[in-house]
Amino acid sequence: MFECLIMGDSTGVGTASAINARRTMHCDVIAAERATAKQILAWRKSTKTYGTAILAVGSNDIPGPALARDLAKMRSTLATRRVIWLLPYSRPAAGVVNSVAISFNDETLDLARFPSKDRVHPARYEDIAKALLK
């Protein structure tokens, strides 16, 4: 059975809703509105091994070395074969997230490819789900 995890902030919540609406096998979701990387690190971790994890983190954080450390620590605790990071609309935050993704040889999906009304959230999470489920 394919196990997937979506973890993160409000972009993770929206993405999870759109993905789970399209799949009969739902992904586990560990995400909350306004969550920061430090808060996500403090959440109880799943003991499952996942085929894929989608991480939506960084939109609510100050870009810099502390964010990079938190993201690397978060990534190192995941039991998964494949990780896809959603790069935030904020270009400085996206740069930090991307650098961590590269260091772990992970994939990324840049949210800046998709329209947004507030430059934080995609206008249509269905577009994100479609791109991820391709």
What does this structure look like?
The chain is α/β, with parallel strands linked by helices. The chain has one domain: 3-Layer(aba) Sandwich (Rossmann fold), CATH 3.40.50.1110. The chain contains 5 helices and 5 strands, in the order βαβαβαβαβα.
* E-strand count: 5
Q: Give a short account of the largest sheet.
A: 5 strands, parallel
CATH superfamily: SGNH hydrolase
SS element count, helices: 5
Strand content: 15-25%
Q: What would you report as the Rg, rounded to the nearest angstrom?
A: 13 Å
Derived from helix and strand composition plus strand pairing, the structural class reads: alpha/beta
The CATH architecture name reads 3-Layer(aba) Sandwich
**Total domain count:** 1
Keywords: Plasmid
Protein name: SGNH hydrolase-type esterase domain-containing protein
